[in-house]
Amino acid sequence: MVIDRSCDDNMPGNKFEYAVKITLDIKDSDEVMSYSGCGKYIGTATLNGVWQLNKINEKSVDNPPKPPNIQFRFEERNISGFTGCNRFKGNVEFSDNSIKTTQFSVTNLACKLNDIEKEFLNSIAEKKLNYLITGDTLTLWTAEDNLVFIRL
């Protein structure tokens, strides 16, 4: 169990974002072992959740009526999201500092001209993207594209 509260492991300078508790039931025994400590998410698990598009290729996404977003589900290895008009989903392969999107599908609603939608989809569909998370900001990029998201 991961508990969302700061944790100090009694070593100078070792503050962690989360407390962690693990209970282990020993098979074929009545014995139960409990462990507790401190921890933090590392690697791709930090991508989990919903991220709202803030900038695309240095252009701000200024207050659209329905802001584009992307949601990563690490355990299920998939993504989904909203372009501002249409919904999309696909599979994703995670590595330490990049993701690869595959098997992308998008609804096909008739919408007003939406340049952001086209640019957003072209930037993420069937691509290998590098990523960096800094606080509540996610940056995805390729040689051609740069997208900045804010965690919701």
From TrEMBL:
Gene3D superfamilies: 2.40.128.270. Residues 48-145 form the DUF306 domain. Pfam families: META (PF03724). InterPro entries: DUF306_Meta_HslJ (IPR005184), HslJ-like_sf (IPR038670), Hsp_HslJ-like (IPR053147). This is DUF306 domain-containing protein. It comes from Mangrovivirga cuniculi. Transmembrane segments: none annotated.
